Amino acid sequence: MTRTDFTRKLIVRLGNGALLACLSTAALAQYPSQPVRIVLPYGAGGVADITARVLAQKLSEQMHQQVLIDNRPSAGQIVASEAVKRAEPDGYTLLWLNGGHAVSKSLFKSLPYDAEKDFAPVSTVAFFGMALLVNSDSPYKTVGDLIAAAKANPGKFNIGTTSIGSTQSIAALLFKSMAGLDFQVVPFKATPMIITAVKGHDLHGMFEFLTPTLSHIKSGSMRALGVSFGARFTGLPDIPTIAEAGVPGYEATSWNAVAAPAKTPQSVIDKLNREINAAIAVPELRQRLIDVGVEPRAGTPQQLHDLLVSETAKWKKVVESANIPKQ
């Protein structure tokens, strides 16, 4: 091959490379040009699914492109997380990152994904807290009342939650530790069973997310002594936080967020972040989430990264101190 031929081929290759780069840049500038899929590690009908669908509907309107919800429930978020980890990093397959990812790292011996390394954070969407609840005829009117009674009767109090290792059970264990109490955390398979046990006086109280208990609180059939948010929940402004009601520093919330596969272009991450923040700022959307017990809150990719890191460390300590065996 002569030097001239070599030079011509090099120019063609460089030209093709430049063309591909231009086409790639143009494609990113037009993002999204096809439907976007958010993969959820949970089934339909729960608080995560409701929140995701409310957001997806608004994003579809804003971006003039369908945003679809793909439910793939599994323990440890494995099925959904693996699907997104292996997806093309082009912004068209996203993960519903959530508090469960922070907890799962301590509950499983191994996971086929690393939430901190395999996904690019986009934005938080909403936070959902729990309430410490008692029956409406309970003698305990405040968190302080329950703490005083539990301290006076060590080992004799029973607090119900969903299954061992759930966010609710770990929140109860954190309360137990921070309040210096000795009580039994009793696991149940489903929330209605816990509510029945509390109303039947088989339990002294329960820890549960607000979404499935909000109607009981508002009707007066159950009494919420405190909420686990860091600040009072907008939808229940008269109920104090557990921190202000007797356990300073206590906070136990789960959260929902959006993440993309690692190596997704920064321009796509920025676009998604802007759209999510704009959606969460819409008053009608905010009210829809508040009405189901969710506190809407968007943020920056860095804030989501920091949240995941801090929550992973926080729940690791709780799981280890409670000697919860790894699965």
3D structure, described in words:
By secondary structure, the chain is of the alpha/beta class. Helices cover 44% and strands 20% of the residues. The protein is built from eleven helices and ten strands. Strands 1, 2, 3, 4, 5, 6, 7, 8, 9 and 10 form a ten-stranded mixed sheet that branches. Helix 2 packs across helix 9 and helix 4 (99-107) packs parallel to helix 11 (301-321). The longest helix has 27 residues, at 3-29. It is globular, with a radius of gyration of 23 Å. The termini are far apart. The relative contact order is 0.18.
Globally, the shape reads globular
Largest sheet: 10 strands, mixed
Note the run of SSEs as H and E.
HEHEHEHEHEHEHEHEEHHEH
Gap from first CA to last CA: 63 Å
Proportion of strand residues: 15-25%
Quick summary of this structure?
The protein has 327 residues and is of the alpha/beta class. It has helices at 3-29, 47-63, 78-85, 99-107, 143-152, 167-179, 191-199, 214-219, 266-280, 283-290, 301-321; strands at 36-40, 67-71, 93-98, 119-135, 157-162, 183-188, 205-209, 222-227, 253-261, 295-296.
